[in-house]
């Protein structure tokens, strides 16, 4: 007749309620969880840790792809298989400390962290919409272009849109001959018998005088030496 070896067995609730002390090497089996404990002769049931014989209790497995994970000290649980393309990530909020996550979300988190959180930005504000569409939004700071030197004027660029900058020449900024090309009259110089007034300066209107009237009907007196004086009507030659 074949020998039959049987271990002490009971439900997990009864083992806990009775809380016996197993002899050294004695095995106690929970019939409803398929977990084992081995006594040491002095530690009560509730203080003993579970052990296995190298296998995973089949009662934990419900479907292909299920993963056995630790849910607490000496406690195993099941993580159902994820969807195609997902991968495992550490998740402290999950019962087993891990959860399934879509590859897209993982890539978005990596890029978002490197670009937004760890990246350096100057003049650009970057935000990552992790809870929404996963987009990274960039907002360029508004900036103002201001002219200097001989020109004045400014324009503010908002959201990189077009802007019109109107330039105004600063007063007294243009020096004739230095900032311009071509001929110009700097001032008038009076010759013999000619006097000048108001002959230089910006917006000046020079006055030229020779000491007597020179209209068409006026007589022109000219000293010719030896105390003699000649007079007559002025004559004009006008080139056509």
Could you explain how this protein is built, in words?
- By secondary structure, the chain is mainly beta.
- It folds into four domains: 1-55, Seminal Fluid Protein  PDC-109 (Domain B) (Ribbon), CATH 2.10.10.30; 61-141, no CATH class; 143-184, no CATH class; 195-233, no CATH class.
- It contains two helices and 18 strands.
- The protein has helices at 12-18, 103-117, and strands at residues 8-10, 27-30, 36-38, 50-51, 67-72, 75-79, 86-90, 98-102, 124-128, 136-140, 143-146, 151-152, 154-157, 168-169, 195-197, 207-209, 219-225, 228-233.
- The strands form eight sheets. A four-stranded mixed sheet has the order 1-2-3-4. A two-stranded antiparallel sheet has the order 5-6. The chain has a two-stranded antiparallel ribbon with strand order 7-8.
- It is rod-shaped, with a radius of gyration of 53 Å.
- It starts with 7 loop residues before the first strand and ends in a 7-residue tail after the last strand.
- The mean pLDDT is 81.
